[in-house]
Amino acid sequence: MPEASDNERLRRYWDKHARSYDRQMRFFDRTLFGESRSWVCSRATGDVLEVAIGTGLNLPLYPPGVRLTGIEWSPEMLALARRRARMLGQTADLREADAQALPFPDASFDSVVSTLSLCAIPDDRRAVAEMSRVLRPGGRLLLLDHVASSARAVRALQWLVERITVAVGGEHLLRRPLQLVQSEGLEIEQQNRFKLGIVERVSARKPAS
Ligand SMILES: C[S@@+](CC[C@H](N)C(=O)[O-])C[C@H]1O[C@@H](n2cnc3c(N)ncnc32)[C@H](O)[C@@H]1O
Q1: 120 lines ligand 1 (CB under 6 A)
Q2: Alpha-carbon torsion (95, 45, 119, 103), positive or negative
Q3: pLDDT value at 1 more than 60
């Protein structure tokens, strides 16, 4: 588990960047992630938990009828997500919480969604373990993230850039959530990797015990 002071510093980083987040993300959504947010959200069913919901950019993309809970540790990001939910007339239980210690009992959700967050959560292994814990048997874990490229030259560049991004805002470029999902024993249903292997989306099932 990371030091509490590191967590606090990163939380404050996201508070500080909350107002400019949507503007920055528009560029990356257009150039890198395309329709992947919709790919992820459209597969969610039933009781859904979105982990590290940020400003709630995924809110309009969920199918009607899902019962959405979202957690986020930055109060400023969360405030914007709540405002977006209100503007969309959407009922969602949005709470301040840490993805590394989810405040829910085991087997609480049918689907757990996380987009572009495992690159930013300090202990990504712990976060994936928590996502798996709160999934019901047979439930679905849905992830989208930027990951270590499949091209060696790009990975070398990512390594260089990561020296700065981790130090400044805890942003990792060389992670691979898929491997954590597999080591939790979840079954991969679908997985696509594109844009030089930098973008990966995953749909995985928790075995029905
Ligand atoms: C790049 S943003 C992604 C936001 C949103 N998921 C999206 O797709 O736009 C990363 C988010 O992860 C949140 N975050 C990072 N570590 C967290 C943690 N341990 N618990 C909860 N939220 C966390 C940050 O506050 C930030 O809102």
Answers
A1: yes
A2: positive
A3: no
State whether the beta carbon of 116 lies less than 6 angstroms from ligand 1: yes
Per-residue pLDDT reduced to its tens digit, 165-206: 999 999 999 999 999 999 999 999 999 999 999 999 999 999
For residues 7 and 98, the answer to whether their CB atoms sit within 8 Å is yes
> Got the DSSP string for 20-34?
HHHHHHHHHIIIIIT
Correct CATH for 4-205 of 3.40.47.10, 3.40.50.10490, 3.40.50.150, 3.30.70.100: 3.40.50.150
pTM of the model: 0.97
Q: Where are the domains of the chain?
A: 4-205
pLDDT tens digits, residue range 73-90?
Answer: 999 999 999 999 999 999
* Ligand 1 center to 159 CA (angstroms): 21
